[in-house]
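Handout, page 2. Input:
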Amino acid sequence: MITGKQLRSLRTKKNVSQKLLAQCAGFSSAYTHKLERSRVVSVTASTKYLQALEQAAVRAAEVLERKERESEAVLARFGVTTPVAPAAPAPIVQERMSVPAPIKTKTSTLTFESVTELLDSRLGKPEPRGSKHVVYMLPGQALLVLGFDHSWSVRTPSRSGWDLVDGKTLEGLITRLGLK
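Output:
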């Protein structure tokens, strides 16, 4: 016999959500939750659960791979290179990435207003985020964060949160996006 705690441990090691597992097994999310909290799970239920877990793990990996390809394609459009992926997938860590300290720039002829005007015409209106920066949404869930202090960064979603792909001066951003 297997316990619900053991089932849950297997599911979390494979980075599969209860919802996806329930869909693959034909269970409701509530039933999946109930199984994982049970002291003892029947052989029939555990067999069905484990078969669905394998299917869900494959689907989750396919979705993640597709999203990574889409993000790379978007970044390539803007001339941003992506770091080489590690050989083995890193475990998911539930923590948020802190915003890096602003990058101080040298005297520049570019202003925040002139750059946002160029970006607005190319990417649409940004989403204001507090009093320090605005965020432009790029296709493929990538973000372009533009700080009022002339710093910028491109962030892409990853298993561990958000990866900082690049962050330079406004001149670097204009050059990188081919706007100059």
